[in-house]
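Hello,

Our lab assistant flagged a job as stuck in the queue for most of the afternoon. It eventually completed. Since we weren't sure the result was trustworthy after the delay, we are filing this so someone can double-check. Below is the sequence as submitted and the structure that was eventually returned. Let us know if re-running is recommended.
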Amino acid sequence: MTRDEILVAAAQVFRQKGFHGASMADIAEAVNLQKASLYHHVASKQELLVELLDRALEMLSEGMNAVVAQNVPAAEKLRLAMRSYLQVMTSNLDVTAVLLMEHRSLTDELHARHIPTRDRFEEMWRDLVREGVASGVFACSDVPMTVRGLLGVLNWTITWYRPNGSLSPEQIADQFSEMFLMGIRNPTSLDVES
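-- returned structure --
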């Protein structure tokens, strides 16, 4: 039994039952171990949870780092970042669902350890938006609020996305990026409502 197999099972169990509804016995059963044997591999549910949260942020950060390193205009970089984010999320639904839904279940000590990692990831998004503002492509007066709105839209996707649905993660990201970059208001309506 590998650590990765245990983490995959823990993510599935946490996603299905919620962190507080899941037990170590549930995780042991998912990997065909006795509960006592599971404790030879891992000390607690909290240990599994923080490792899953860190792993999810690491996957998302790798994709984001690859995007921000590209020498493309800010609007294209934002579109690519949204694509990368949704691709990682939808390819790893159990782990990313745990990241988005269960981070509040960490103990205070582990939460304090996890928050700087999350903040560094969110700062990459703020830097990307600031880059667009500095180049004159984006106009937003509150960069942190813009990033919270953007990530909120992307994060909520895991609640309705279906792998066999009519849109790929890339198509969803492209539609979201168009909404963020262009808005939903018809430019010709400005004359009508004036």
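-- support follow-up --
The delay was a queue issue, not a problem with the job. The result is valid. The two ends are 67 Å apart (CA to CA). The mean pLDDT is 92.
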